[in-house]
Design brief:
The protein is mainly alpha-helical. It has 6 helices and no strands. The longest helix has 17 residues.
Length: about 120
Amino acid sequence: MKMKHGLVVVVAMLLPALAQAGAPSAFVICGACHAVRRGASGGIGPTLAGVYGRESGSLPGYQYSPALKAKHVKWTETTLDTWLKSPNSYAPGTKMAYAGQPDAGARKALIAYLKTLK
């Protein structure tokens, strides 16, 4: 019974991400840790609202890893593509526990969606 209850909790946590209008299917894993509304808090990771064009590690109120804060890059199609492919390779020591998205098409869809989050 415990496993069944745990599965219900996980599905309930993912429903907001699944319901995001226009979100690609690859976003489901992102939505488990990241909110998409400006000012939203309480997630494991920072909100992704306004991430496109923002400097890495710069959102006030979120405690980024020293590795990501030290990058000082603007999140563009190129930098996001590299980051999403392998976060730990891009910023060794990052605290983001995401292995990365090996599929270039899925990364492109994710980036297109991130660009819409204002």
